[in-house]
Amino acid sequence: MSIPHSLARAARNAVHTSPLLQDPAALRGPQPRPQMRRYEVSTLLENGNVVQTRHIAPALPLFEDAFCAFSRGSLIDTDCGPMAIEDLLPGDRVITQDGSAQEVVWKGSTVIVPGRVSATGRDYRLTRIMADAFGMQRPMSGVIAGPSARLLATPGHLRALAGDQPMLTPVQHFVDGMGIIETAPPTPIEVFHICLRRHAVINVDGLQFETYHPGVQAVRVLSQAIRSLYLNLFHHIDQLTDFGPQAFARAGEGEIDAIPA
């Protein structure tokens, strides 16, 4: 009689996570050091100056998601017209979903290799959205989104979860193998993300993407050390609540991650 998949998976997890079931010699040996990554940050200061800093921090999803939304060449709508993400600077004003213009207060970038799985098992595949995949001029010329990008749209399989409310959904949920595909080039790719003074949805080449917000659930179980390293990336905030409320609900792992207050 075969073992049910759920029981087999639970057994594997127990072996991997319980010290009592692991080889004592392996436990006495040197433990693997956490993988680190270099992050580039530009921040708008209160006096209007822009400061650029370089950080070495853990390659954890919470950290990486702050940098991995847009690839080079992504066109952001600003009050001066479309601007490539790599040319956008803190202090520039981008057009949000409600038609207002907000200042960019933070921009981060890092380099990933989409065709390589990280030491933590994370996949960095990019999502290529062909022109007109979501309708006429949506997007206008095609978009390559990073692994942490979210669209203000709801795919068919999540409509029962969202109801009639708009929802921010990871781009991977829209992959259909035709107009929206995954791609994993073997060469390094520079990716970016931005923060505004408040969480918002912006136009990127005709599609509506969110600006950076860590989310409500992601920051609840941080240790003090990790929290300090994370906050050190954001010179424009002093504490996690300074990110403010989310503009829209998010799709999480099979549930609504957070509903804005």
Give the helix/strand layout.
Blueprint: H1 5-17, H2 24-28, E1 36-44, E2 50-58, H3 61-64, E3 70-71, E4 75-78, E5 81-84, E6 93-95, E7 101-112, E8 126-129, E9 143-145, E10 150-152, H4 159-162, E11 167-170, E12 180-183, E13 189-196, E14 201-204, E15 207-210, H5 224-231, E16 249-251, E17 256-258
Parallel strand pairs: 11-16
Antiparallel strand pairs: 1-2, 1-7, 3-13, 4-5, 6-7, 7-13, 8-9, 8-12, 10-11, 14-15, 16-17
Domain Hedgehog/Intein (Hint): 68-215
InterPro entries: Hedgehog/Intein_dom, Hint_dom_sf
Organism: Ruegeria pomeroyi (strain ATCC 700808 / DSM 15171 / DSS-3)
Main β sheet profile: 6 strands, antiparallel
Q: Can you count the beta strands? A: 17
Mean pLDDT: 84
Q: Helical residue percent?
A: 10-25%
Tally the helices. 5
CATH topology: Endonuclease - Pi-scei, Chain A, domain 1
Query: Which sequence of SSEs, written as H and E, runs from N to C?
Result: HHEEHEEEEEEEEHEEEEEHEE
Q: Estimate nothing, just give the exact number of structural domains.
A: 1
| CATH architecture assignment name | Beta Complex
Protein name: Hedgehog/Intein (Hint) domain-containing protein
Pfam families: Hint_2
Domain Hedgehog/Intein (Hint): 68-215
InterPro entries: Hedgehog/Intein_dom, Hint_dom_sf
